[in-house]
Amino acid sequence: MYSTVSVISPPAAEPVSLQVLQEHARIDYDYDNTLLGLYLTGARQAVEQFLGRVLITQTLRWVMAHQAPINQFPLVPFTAYIFPMWMPYSMLFQRPIELPRAPVQAINSISVGEWGKDDTVLSADQYSADLLTDPGRVRRHAGVAPLPSDHISIEFVAGYGNDGTSVPVPIQLAILMMATFLYEHRGDDGGDMPDAVKNLLWPYRLYAFGDPDA
Q1: Going by C-beta distance under 8 Å and a sequence separation of 6 or more, which residues neighbour residue 118?
Q2: In the prediction, which pLDDT does 72 show?
């Protein structure tokens, strides 16, 4: 199975402000503000990737394709691998599917598609969403006729809230530390995320099967 996550509506703000970053990094001038803004966004994105989360409210689209890109075959099989057995792709949506980012606020739409045809949008009575789990899950209702498809597309809203006040403080501190690290080193070091940043993030990290850091 091949999947991608794309941002449909980006966050309206960063979890921490440029002013707070300047205070944290002890910067008392403004001529590097454009650069600091880039590092702040880059640090937030690195933290989100590490956590498997999004922080400020965003709309995302997750597409799972039956067939992997041709240049990945035969490394990626044509059926979904569900340990400890092989499961046909047509059966995948009968099981709960964990969404790839958290915390999930809402499911906007679920659609399936075939080669050469328009996508079919599922009606709300064809599936259920469990948003109390972390990450959230969706599942097709029992008894709903299977829909042949080459891909499944789920559009959903995720994030802690609309501004940084809803983001846990340790995550805010990790972003400040990561942005300061990027600004002060500017690629001169190996670029690995500092241990102090990881130590703040570990309690909030979501793990996936096969995660090398799990």
Answers
A1: none
A2: 47
Burial class (CB in 10 A: 0-12, 13-18, 19+), 11: buried
First to last CA, the chain: 22
**Of the candidates 54, 57, 33, 199, the residue with the CA atom closest to the CA atom of residue 25:** 33
Q: What is the pLDDT of residues 156-196, one digit of tens each?
A: 999 999 999 999 999 999 999 999 999 998 877 766 899 99
Query: Distance between CA 139 and CA 70 in Å, rounded?
Result: 29
**Do 153 and 62 meet the contact criterion of CB atoms below 8 Å apart?**
yes
- CA dist., res. 67 & res. 70, Å (int): 8
pTM, to two decimals? 0.81
- Can you name the residues that pair with 56 across neighbouring β-strands? 161
